[in-house]
Structures are given as C-alpha cells and as structure tokens.
Design goal:
Elements (H helix, E strand, L loop, with lengths): L3 E5 L2 E5 L9 H8 L6 E4 L3 E3 L16 E3 L4 E9 L8 E8 L2 E6 H5 L2 E3 L2 H33 L16 H22 L1 H9 L11 H24 L5 H25 L5 H19 L4 E2 L6 E2 L3 E2 L6 E2 L1
Antiparallel strand pairs: 1-2, 3-6, 3-9, 4-5, 6-7, 7-8, 10-11, 12-13
Helix pairs in contact: 3-7, 4-5, 4-6, 4-7, 4-8, 7-8
Length: 314
C-alpha cells in the first residue's frame, strides 16, 4: 500500500488509499464547510489515531500520534463510522508522510484554524480583543499624564474633540459594524461559520447580504480611519496626536466589545440608536464653526488667529 506526497507552499498534499465513499460530500460541506485537501493550522494539541474507532478491525488507540500548535496539516480523507456513539464523522489529517491519522470532526473543530490570512486574523482578534482594549486605554492614560505634565488640555472623542467629524464617524461605523457582526452570529451562525472557512474581502462576491454589508462596513471603517489619522496629525504636537489616537482606538475597542455582546440580549439595538444621537449631538453642538478663515477657508469658532494657516481674522 503506497502513499503519494505532493507539496505546495510547504503544505502537505497526501493521497490516502482509504477512501471514505460513505460520506455525502455536499452534506458534509454544508455542515462543516470544508472537504478533502483543505488546509488547517493547528492551534492546540491533537491526538491522531491510526484508524477511526471500530474501523478496519483496529482500536482508535492503536499507534497514536500527536500534532502540535502551528503544525500545518491537510485533510486527506473523511469517513463515517455509524457505530461511534460520540461522533460518527472522522477526518484524516496529514502533516507529513510519517505523521498522519484520524480524529473526530467534533474534536477537530476547536483545535484548528483555516490556513488563510483572513481566518487566522479573525481567530487572533477574537482571542486578543480584551488585551487590545486594555493596551489602547493604557496608552491613552499614559499620554494623558504626559499632557498634564506639559499643562496641555487632554483631547478625546466626545469629550474635548478635535475639529473634525471623522473621529465621530469612525466611532459610529465601528459601533454599527459591531452590532451587525453580533447579529450575524446570533441569527445566522451558519452564515458566519461558512464565511470563516471560505473568507473574502470582496464585498461584491457571492455571499449572503449580511456578509456583504459587514464587508462594506469594514472597508468604510478603513477609509474613515485613514481620514482620521490624516486629520489628527495636522494637530500642532505629535504627542497630542498619539495620545488622541490611543484614546480613540481604546474607545472604538470598548464600543466593539460592548455592542457585539449586548446584541445577544437585544440591548445593543436601542443603545446603538441612543449612541448615534448622543455622538452626533455632541459633535455638532461643540464643533460648530460660525466663521471661516479668509485665507485658507478653515472653520473658526471665533475671530482671531486661524489654527491652520496662522492668518489673523478680524
């Protein structure tokens, strides 16, 4: 019995002689969203058995092998063992010609991530989201202390905002995207899981409307973020810009965490409407510009020196 190995981009591609003809490929893809020759990266230790339970006259504990974190593996075969009361679906994985074996599909689910950039980013961001919030808030507090030492007034979105609508718009887009993301996971979990296994950044690709709207919101978020960074670094001091961005990213992460979780108890929807009203009212109430600079056209809250070009307006 021979095995043939074909390698491409350091990923094993193994043709296995045990062909599971008793598995409906369409039904399996609809439930698990992958099939043979699909590539994974291992995120937790996986025990491989020489054969599925009660299959080919062997015990599932015979000649066990182990896969470890960061191992790149490929699905070489899928079979069904109706006599297995734990999980009838078994998947064969191969890391290399010497390391291949079977594992239950249920046990595989939480120990691997699809081997593509988008899926790995989703997995990483989901795991590190709280750490990101703490990091950005810590940076904001650090630069707040620096500004206090410099006797400067701390600027923060919704509190003492810069004269730009983009930071407020970024918060609105982030909060709306978070509600949409949470709603997809709550009402259409299969749609999100299918996107996780077969991701794309193209909002016009063939996907359910909810995924298309989510991708459009992500692209909108990136475009607004570029505009925010451009406006913020027009501020007079680099320390002010860095501290403002750190606090802004912290606020966005708090909004993301709150709204993704609150939609599951239906609290996020009315709170989102209230937040939109608060953010817009706060911005237009405290960032009105009744005057314009006669030289550069920048908005001014009062007559005097222009904060952009320095011209004196009487």
């Amino acid at each position: 019995m021979s095995l043939f190995l074909a390698c491409k981009h350091d990923r094993p591609q193994v043709l296995n002689p045990w062909v599971g003809e008793n598995v409906d490929s369409i039904a399996f893809k609809q439930q698990y969203h992958y099939w043979r020759n699909y590539n994974f990266v291992v995120t937790d230790t996986i025990r491989l058995s020489h054969s599925p339970a009660n299959a080919f006259g062997l015990s599932e504990d015979t000649c066990e092998m182990w896969l470890h974190r960061w191992d790149a593996v490929v699905v070489t075969n899928i079979t069904s063992i109706p006599s297995d009361s734990t999980d009838s679906m078994w998947v064969m994985l191969a890391r290399d010609p010497q390391t291949m074996g079977w594992v239950r599909a249920k046990d595989l689910h939480d120990r691997v991530v699809p081997d593509n950039f988008i899926s790995r980013f989703i997995n990483l961001f989901s795991s590190w989201s709280m750490l990101l919030v703490v990091s950005f808030l810590a940076l904001g507090i650090l630069f707040l202390g620096i500004q206090n030492l410099r006797h400067a007034r701390f600027q923060m979105v919704h509190v003492n905002d810069i004269r730009s609508f983009y930071p407020t718009l970024l918060c609105l887009v982030v909060s709306s995207s978070a509600v949409l993301y949470g709603a997809i996971q709550q009402f259409y979990p299969d749609v999100w899981e299918a996107f996780y296994y077969q991701p794309t950044l193209n909002p016009f690709a063939t996907n359910p409307i909810a995924i298309r709207l989510f991708l459009l919101s992500i692209w909108t978020m990136l475009i607004v973020l570029i505009a925010v960074i451009d406006d913020v670094f027009k501020q007079p001091a680099v320390v002010d810009a860095i501290s403002y961005l750190a606090s802004l990213f912290g606020v966005c992460m708090v909004l993301y965490l709150f709204f993704t979780q609150s939609v599951h108890i239906y609290l996020g929807y009315p709170v989102l409407a209230a937040y939109w009203y608060f953010a817009l009212h706060r911005h237009f109430q405290y960032n009105q510009s009744p005057y314009r600079c006669g030289k550069c056209g920048a908005g001014l809250s009062s007559k005097g020196k222009c904060h952009k070009c320095g011209a004196i307006n009487e």
